[in-house]
Design brief:
The longest helix has 13 residues, at about 90-100. The protein is α+β, with helices and mostly antiparallel strands and about 140 residues long. About 25% of the residues are buried. It is about 25% helix and about 35% strand.
Amino acid sequence: MNPHITVFTLGVDDLERSVAFYRDGLGWTTAGIIGTEFEHGAVAFFQLQPGLKLGLWPRASMAADSGLPVSAGEGPPAFTIGHNVNSVEEVNAVMARAARAGARIVKAAQATFYGGHAGYFQDPDGHVWEIVFNPAFSATD
């Protein structure tokens, strides 16, 4: 696994309010909310620096996608750490390596609603990583 983070996703309670805060309040650039045609798909991305995006995603959607309940403690965290790779095979390889290293597989790698492939694991401290191939992003975007 090439140690770099490509997407830092924050779970939010109100996506429109959060987009307005970052876009209008802080002046960050975004294409706005995308993915609204999919159940649990609405998300917004902000380019932070070359190779690093901030994602804003409703906590309920994060819970639905990761399979973790919305609750204190074990529920989806306020964010996930996204690691984009260039292929389905890379997703599967990184997930397997994480499992061998002792990660708890939260959601096995599988096809996504947006045409990609992704899985989730928790590190030993419970931090949630999403390993993802998104055909709309390169691994270095």
